[in-house]
Specification:
Blueprint (H helix, E strand, L loop, with lengths): L21 H28 L31 H15 L1 H15 L8 H30 L7 H37 L20 H17 L3 H4 L30 H4 L13 E4 L5 E4 L1 H5 L4 E5 L12 E7 H7 L9 E5 L8 E4 L1 H5 L4 E6 L2 E2 L9 E3 L12 E6 L3
Parallel strand pairs: 1-10
Antiparallel strand pairs: 1-2, 3-4, 4-7, 5-6, 5-10, 7-8, 7-9
Helix pairs in contact: 1-2, 1-3, 1-5, 2-6, 3-4, 3-6, 4-5
């Protein structure tokens, strides 16, 4: 059979949908140009929020290397910063899925075009297209798996998603540089002439009878994205909107009643917490600081220290967040003062008694320790912490990712990490 045989996918006549065309693909491409750029930036922001260059315990990627040029000390203001950036990252990633699939469908014939490369520019375009398709599917798939199923993809999510993002975005930039002028011209000319013709190399020479217009197909794609937005965004917005987040793992109503009745990502049972080990007789907080100075504090002794309150949410890398909860406990900077840091508290390494799950140890920067809202919380919403929320004590820091708000704290070491 010849390449122009309509029975072969290498023939333009094999692909008969009348929807394919330069204008249709260009509109989808321009939407992705904006959306994927925001996704990439908010993804990098999320990695910076983990403070991976602060201490090895926070570094979930095998080697920052040249890719760590953007890292910076994560701020504590505004206190809802990570709630917004990561909520936007996850929600936008899900909302863009119909657009990505429609875009991939619109350019499928180009994957089968022969010869594979007619020129250097064409070869670069084909390579970028293959990396773009493969990278896009990989990034969106691993992201959705992490959000919906607590990640089941083989290998660690952090390095795979991180390095995959760089490969995908590099291919995306190369493809955008080659195709954005064409896309803008196609949209501009269509706006001026309002015709259905001249759809370029993406149009089929043997179109089937249309069942929907190109504009109708775009409305359908946009409607699917809007539906995903409605079924996802409530997990970050909170309030009554949480009940609309049917596709979100922490959507729906709060998982309980009372002061401790708000979202939980890691339960005490999952973390392997022994109730006797965290009971008032056995549990002690060990705080170490300057020149090895160490104090051991029971929960009763902590409650006799000056207590402070702060209204802060918990925001997770999976995109969900709680409403502001009213936490009460001892300021981290006051604990630093107990072990020799009366002014300018340093970084701190926080260790938990948990036996299972990531981030049993986490480091916080000096600016996070110094913030007066950063607490070793003992109570929430006027009641003692429940075991699932970190009893006998947990860290709560403004704008920090949830995994850095360590629960079931056993030891805090202040000083250079």
């Amino acid at each position: 059979m010849r390449d122009d045989d309509p029975r072969l996918p290498t023939s333009p006549g094999f692909w008969r949908s009348p929807l394919r065309g330069t204008w249709f693909t260009s509109v989808l491409g321009l939407v992705l140009l904006v959306g994927v750029t925001v996704l990439f930036v908010t993804g990098l922001v999320s990695y910076a929020a983990y403070n991976p260059d602060l201490a090895p315990v926070n570094d979930q990627t095998p080697d920052k290397g040249i890719l760590g040029f953007y890292l910076f000390s994560w701020p504590t203001n505004p206190y809802w910063l990570y709630r917004v950036t990561q909520g936007l990252h996850v929600t936008l990633g899900i909302v863009l899925i119909p657009v990505l699939l429609a875009k991939l469908w619109s350019v499928v014939p180009k994957l089968f075009t022969l010869p594979p490369a007619r020129s250097l520019a064409h070869a670069l375009e084909r390579v970028s297209l293959l990396l773009l398709v493969g990278g896009g599917l990989f990034e969106f798939t691993t992201g959705v798996l992490n959000v919906q199923l607590d990640y089941v993809f083989p290998g660690s999510f952090y390095p795979l998603h991180f390095y995959g993002a760089w490969v995908f975005f590099a291919a995306f930039l190369a493809h955008a540089a080659l195709k954005t002028p064409t896309a803008l011209r196609a949209v501009r000319e269509r706006r001026q002439h309002r015709d259905e013709g001249d759809e370029g190399e993406l149009a089929t020479p043997r179109p089937d009878a249309p069942t929907v217009s190109r504009r109708g197909a775009l409305w359908l794609t946009g409607g699917a994205s809007l539906l995903l937005l409605v079924l996802t965004a409530g997990q970050s917005i909170g309030g009554v909107w949480r009940r609309t987040a049917l596709l979100a793992p922490h959507g729906g109503a709060d998982p309980g009643n009372g002061p401790n009745g708000f979202q939980i990502n890691k339960t005490a049972a999952y973390a392997g917490i022994d109730a006797q080990e965290t009971g008032p007789e056995a549990w002690r907080l060990v705080v170490t600081g300057r020149d090895g100075r160490t104090v051991r504090l029971s929960r009763a002794e902590l409650l006799r220290l000056p207590l402070h309150s702060a209204a802060l949410p918990i925001a997770c890398v999976e995109g969900w967040s709680t409403a502001d909860q009213w936490w009460r406990g001892v300021r981290l900077r006051d604990l630093a003062a107990l072990v020799g840091y009366d002014t300018d508290p340093p970084d701190v390494l926080v260790e938990s008694v948990q036996r299972h799950g990531a981030f049993r140890r986490a480091a916080l920067r000096a600016n996070q320790v110094a913030d007066p809202r950063s607490l070793l919380a003992l109570q929430v919403n006027g009641e003692d912490l429940s075991p699932d929320h970190g009893y006998p004590a947990r860290v709560i820091v403004p704008a920090a990712p949830g995994v850095l708000n360590t629960k079931w704290v056993a030891r805090m070491t202040f000083g250079d990490l």
